Amino acid sequence: MVLPYKYVGDFVDKEKELYAYKTKKGIERDKLLAEIKKSKERNIHYVRSGESLGLIARRYHCSVRNLKSWNNLRGNTIYPGQKLVVYAPGYTGKKSKPAVASNSKPTDISNRNKNYHIVKSGENLGLIAKKYKCSVSDLKKWNNLKKNTIQPKQKLIVYEPKAVPGKSKAKKSNIDNGKYVYHTVRKGDTLWDIAKLYDGVTIEQIKKLNNIKNSKRLKPGQKLKVSEKG
Predict the structure, then answer these.
(1) Considering the domain 174-228 in this protein, what is its CATH number?
(2) What tens digit of pLDDT does each residue of 116-132 get?
(3) Half-sphere exposure of 163 (CA within 13 A, CB side)
(4) Cα(42)–Cα(19) distance, rounded to whole angstroms?
(5) Under CATH, what is the fold of the domain 28-87?
(6) Where in the chain is the domain with CATH 3.10.350.10?
(7) Confidence class of residue 165 from pLDDT cuts 50, 70 and 90?
(8) Pick from 212, 193, 49, 196: nearest CA to 224
């Protein structure tokens, strides 16, 4: 297409406006693409017994305020089985800013022991990285992962910090007593928190072993059976 000479001056004067102009169909197309992108980031989380908005927010790397906004919640009360809308980590509903290169250094594994972690339902790389005191980037590098997606029962290579002589693993607060392994409840503990500390242990298993009907009535100092000795 050739522009007639007499219109060249007008074109040059309004060149920016002409290139910035979008037709109605073009605008609708952009909105549609934005909705498609949003739907790909959208997920559904079913609340489990013992969970709170704080725990769910930590799992999805967002804030309690985000969760309440996405689900039109006025208070912080949620209940088991409730369906919550959650988005991929970093989603705010606004245009994201260009990513800033990370300055974090790879974890030194020279003083660590190589081990394997079997992914449990509900776990993500962030939770696993926190457990083994490393970064998500470390986990992806050790396991040749290109994305953050993992599946239950997936086997991951991890490097555990070597135990320091004289220091006990106080985090689990477990007591090995005869047929069962016990956990001593600490202030703020939930069944979900306790189950996370023991490989293969579920909330339902703890409730069944201890005849628990109301999981909100845990008391500091209470001893719970968490599993049978293998």
Answers:
(1) 3.10.350.10
(2) 888 888 888 888 888 88
(3) 6
(4) 33
(5) Membrane-bound Lytic Murein Transglycosylase D; Chain A (3.10.350)
(6) 28-87, 112-161, 174-228
(7) low
(8) 212
The answer to whether the CB of 54 falls within 8 A of the CB of 22 is no
Whether residue 173 contacts residue 179, with contact meaning beta carbons closer than 8 Å, is answered with: no
The 3 state secondary structure assigned to the chain is CCCCHHHHHHHHHCHHHHHHCCCHHHHHHHHHHHHHHHHHHEEEEECCCCCCHHHHHHHCCCCHHHHHHHCCCCCCCCCCCCEEEEECCCCCCCCCCCCCCCCCCCCCCCCEEEEEEECCCCCCHHHHHHHCCCCHHHHHHHCCCCCCCCCCCCEEEEEEECCCCCCCCCCCCEEEECCEEEEECCCCCCHHHHHHCCCCCCHHHHHHHHCCCCCCCCCCCCEEEEEECC
| Tokens (6 digits) for 181 | 């392994």
**The length of the chain, given as a count of residues:** 230
Which tokens hold the place of 29?
A: 């197309």
Provide the CATH number for the domain formed by 112-161 in this structure: 3.10.350.10
pLDDT digits (tens, 9 = 90+) for 68-118: 988 899 888 898 889 998 876 655 555 444 444 444 567 777 777 888 888
Residue 68 and residue 53 in contact, taking contact as beta carbons nearer than 8 Å: yes
Pairing of strands 112-118, 83-87: unpaired
Residue 19 to residue 66: CA distance in whole angstroms:
37
Tens of pLDDT, residue by residue over 177-187, are 467 888 888 88
Residue 124 amino acid letter: N
- In this prediction the pTM is 0.32
